[in-house]
Amino acid sequence: MSTETLSGWQALRARFGGLLRREGSARTERAEIPVREWISVDSGQPARLLGFDRSLVWVVAGLLALGLVMVYSASIALPDNPKFARYSQTYFLTRHIASIAIAVLAAVVAVQVPVSVWEKLSPWIFVAALLTLILVLVPFIGKSMNGARRWIPLGIMSFQPSELAKIAIAMYAAGYMVRRMDVKENFFRAVMPMAVAIAVVGLLLLAEPDMGAFMVIAAIAMGILFLGGVNGRMFSLITVVLVGAFVLMITLSPWRRERIFAYLNPWDERYTLGKAYQLSHSLIAFGRGEIFGQGLGSSVEKLHYLPEAHTDFLLAVIGEELGFVGVACVIVAFFWLARRIFHIGRQAIALDRVFAGLYAQGIAIWMSGQAFINMGVNLGVLPTKGLTLPLMSYGGSAIVMNLVALAIVLRVDIENRQLMRGGRA
Questions:
Q1: Which alpha helices (H) appear in 88-151, and where do they start and end?
Q2: Fewer beta carbons within 10 angstroms: which end of the chain, N or C?
């Protein structure tokens, strides 16, 4: 490894000095770790799932459970609508349970794979994501709904390539920064290839169209570049260009422009029954919820007033039925989740596991960023975008990709703990 590469890694580690000072002491504290959580050092076997972050698992399980209950509550009245007349009252519930079951199974498999293997596979996973983004645009393969072609039917569920693209960009950007650590101060060699990759993904997503997913993917990539130590001036330049591109897309698109105007004044009679219809009824739902809500199952807005109540606007149903207290609990849970994943990422970087650390922090940006956008849309803080609430909204491929991404973060934590006990990752 070159001297420049070593200095780049050392600079990155220096940004997490507090953890570096604790790294040495962590190795001497084995006596404080319960014996049942020890992992064999000399056996050469993969890390056993004994020493892992149980609180992280419980928070994720809690969000999944609450999401399951609220999806059922939000969708139980849908069969009364002629559009869903052929569905039973438990149609969305059973499919959501099936999605969670598949997601848990996929997560159990993913957590068994060492992070080093994921690092080697990251370029191929990114290529696979690009291929699926192309396939979804092909007639008779991609499924069109509400004017957007975002899904590939797979029988028991519809696969959304943009969800795979989120986890792929987190892996690819983390691996890219490790490979380019020695040239991260050079714009054309360090940043330009990554910018081209994001641009290609962006063009494919905008062709669907799915601007919300593009915003999340751009945030993941930008966040990893920043945390990876890209020069501040270069990062600022990229940010300005990216913001300018979003402004240009909104300016040149009449329907996106109308959406912005509707967001700014949702109660205007020109927008209330049009572009601001979802937002206005979402705000009514929150207003009805007050502090403690109307009670589970007592939402009025879900009775065909609020479109997409079980997907994009699930938080509005939570606000109406569980009130401010319920919404606050969801916000705190996502805040804690993001903070904990960032901590796992910092630990990995302190242990010289840069790919693992940057990947984990990229997932934290994904979960927190998408949750923030969804909550902002529901509360009228941000313009309406078609983004679901991670781990909670109805959607098969989204739940699967969320749990697989978090399972790999859990694997990072398991290997961190094994290293701090003197073992091997």
A1: 91-111, 115-135
A2: N
- The count of residues in the chain is 425
CB 412 within 8 A of CB 344: yes
List of residues 6+ apart from 259 with CB closer than 8 A: 275, 383, 384
Q: What is the pLDDT of residues 235-291, one digit of tens each?
A: 777 777 777 777 777 777 777 777 777 777 788 777 777 778 888 899 999 999 999
Q: What backbone torsions phi and psi does residue 108 show, to the nearest 5 degrees?
A: -60, -40
* Nearest one of 307, 239, 323 to 275, comparing CA atoms: 307
Tokens of residue 358, six digits: 């940057």
| DSSP H or E stretch at residue 152 | strand 148-153
* Token representation of residue 87: 């569905």
Three-point CA angle 320, 325, 326, nearest 5°: 60
Nearest residue to 219 (alpha-carbon basis) of 42, 24, 365: 365
Angle, CA 330 vertex, CA 70 and CA 338 arms, to 5°:
130
Angle at 180 between CA 176 and CA 181, to 5 degrees: 115
Cβ–Cβ under 8 Å, residues 388 and 90: no
* Dist CA 126 CA 268 (whole Å): 44
Q: Are 221 and 358 in contact (CB under 8 A)?
A: no
Please check whether residue 169 is in contact with residue 225, taking contact to mean a CB–CB distance below 8 angstroms: no
Amino acid 80 reads: D
Strand partners for 144? 149
What is the rounded CA–CA span in Å between residue 191 and residue 187? Answer: 5
Closest by CA position to 167, among listed 221, 117, 131, 98: 221
Q: What is the pTM of this model?
A: 0.84
| Tokens encoding 39 | 């992992």
| Choice between 380 and 337, residue whose per-residue pLDDT is larger | 337
Start-to-end CA distance of the chain, whole Å, equals 21
Mean pLDDT for the stretch of residues 220-234: 81
C-alpha 253: how far from chain center: 27
* Integer Cα distance of 126 and 122 in angstroms: 6
Radius of gyration for the chain, computed over Cα atoms and rounded to the nearest angstrom: 22
Residue 44 falls in which region: left (phi positive, over 0), alpha (psi -120 to 50) or beta: left
Residues 366 and 405 sit within 8 Å (Cβ to Cβ): yes
Mean pLDDT rounded to a whole number for the chain: 83
> What residues contact residue 407 under an 8 Å CB cut-off, 6+ apart?
106, 107, 108, 110, 111
